[in-house]
């Protein structure tokens, strides 16, 4: 049975301004879906790679150097708009806040569609059918329309961990292993 | 006191003057040894016809008798019975002296004796009072001593009681400390045992769970993963 947990909410007017800017650029380039998806994945990648996040937020490194790292990493893997937006955020010295800015941008985009952002951690990629059924199941249980964003995280081992705002529904094998370990001790 | 002494001294002076004055007439009325011898000789001559016949044996006895009578002039008067004139003069002097003594001496002596008696009585009273005071002081001291002894006994009893109480408290505290130390030692032992068991369980569970994870990870293929996801979706849908 999945369990629910509260996570601290990130709310900052400055982050909201950056998030709105990202969404506005993506909309202006008519690449909102792609850019939002790429930004989300980049944000998750930075959240799981502390060294990379520290390098992008290191004020001792020249901005050009940090922006060069972004372009080297994303040049062939993301759209030019996404790369430019990430480079812009790093260039303003907000590289360390990039995961939070991206989360805010994706959440605001979903809110614009009258939906809440549901971050789903899974060991495997979900099919569209699974995403649809999961969204429907979440609506049934919480009464909230959600937009599914899947994060591939092998540490969950199996099953899913869904985060909707501050609510966490943990149905992962990792949690069951933790419970098993607790029962042993 | 000085006045009384002065009266006594005056009385003694008058007595001396009276004795001296009355002694002279008494002495003058007495007979001398020479006069006595002459009288005896004249009396014998009147009895003898002539002194030229003294060698006569008849008068030798008379002569010896005269000699004895003259020798009697050398003998003292009676040791017991004085002469009449001496009795008169002595009695008169005695009466004068006695009267004077009754008039002046006895009152002075009586006064002195009374004063002395009063002084002695006062001294005796003072001594009695001092004795009474001493007895009272002694009684007070004895009472104080008795009180002090009682107080000392009370203090000793209190000290002994406090010592006993302190001893009991120390004993109880020591017992409590010993019991506490034992309990603490037992708790530490139990804690160490529990910690060891917990650590062992942790290690065992870590190994077991790690092995389980490895097994699960090796056996979770895509179908199994997909089945877990579908089960999760069904469970979330069932929560509504």
Which descriptors would you attach to this protein?
heterodimer; A: 185 residues; alpha+beta; Peroxidase, domain 1; 2 domains; five-stranded mixed sheet; 57% helix; 15% strand; globular; B: 240 residues; mainly alpha; 5 helices; 89% helix
**Tally the helices of chain A: what do you get?**
8
Low-confidence stretches of chain A: 4-11
Q: Gyration radius of chain A, to the nearest Å?
A: 17 Å
Strand content of chain A: 5-15%
**Order of helix and strand elements from N to C terminus of chain B:** HHHHH
Termini gap of chain A:
21 Å
Which overall shape of chain A is indicated by the principal axes computed on the Cα atoms?
A: globular
The assigned structural class of chain A equals: alpha+beta
CATH superfamily of the largest domain in chain A: N-terminal domain of the delta subunit of the F1F0-ATP synthase
Number of helices of chain B: 5
Largest interface: A-B, 30 and 30 residues
What does the largest sheet of chain B look like?
A: none
Q: What is the chain-wise order of helices and strands of chain A?
A: EHHHHHHEHEEEH
Helix content of chain B: over 70%
Describe this structure in words.
The complex is a heterodimer of chains A (185) and B (240). In chain A, strand 4 (160-164) and strand 5 form a beta hairpin. With 185 residues, chain A is an alpha+beta fold. Chain A has helices spanning 13-28, 32-48, 50-56, 63-74, 80-91, 98-112, 128-142, 173-184, and strands at residues 3-6, 116-122, 146-152, 160-164, 167-170. Chain A has a 5-stranded mixed β-sheet, sandwiched between helices. Chain A has 2 domains: 13-107, N-terminal domain of the delta subunit of the F1F0-ATP synthase (Peroxidase, domain 1, Orthogonal Bundle); 114-184, no CATH class. Chain A starts with a strand and ends with a helix. The model of chain A is unreliable at 4-11 (pLDDT under 50). Chain B is mainly α and 240 residues long. Chain B has a domain at 2-117. In chain B, 89% of the residues lie in helices and 0% in strands. Chain B contains 5 helices and no strands. Chain B has helices spanning 2-28, 33-47, 57-74, 84-219, 222-239. In chain B, helix 1 runs antiparallel to helix 4 (84-219) and helix 2 runs antiparallel to helix 3. The model of chain B is unreliable at 23-29 (pLDDT under 50). The interface between A and B is medium-sized, with 30 and 30 residues.
